Amino acid sequence: xxxxxxxxxxxxxxxxxxxxxxxxxxxxxxxxxxxxxxxxxxxxxxxxxxxxxxxxxxxxxxxxxxxxxxxxxx
Length: 74
Fold this sequence. Notes:
Order of helices and strands: HHHHH
Largest sheet: none
Helix content: over 70%
Distance between the termini: 26 Å
Shape: elongated
Number of domains: 1
Structural class: mainly alpha
Strand content: under 5%
Oligomer: single chain
């Protein structure tokens, strides 16, 4: 895919919140997000109460993160 096409796709997706949310909620995107977050994290996890709050808002992300940590697979 040419970089012009990629840029056009990025612009279309980021201008439409519903489309962006749909893309972000795909398994492939969630896996990438978890992997990037894990590679950037260099410290202790947040307190349990904060983790619970995060999980309430983004449960699919935390389930995948937990699965990835335990098994190395999504």
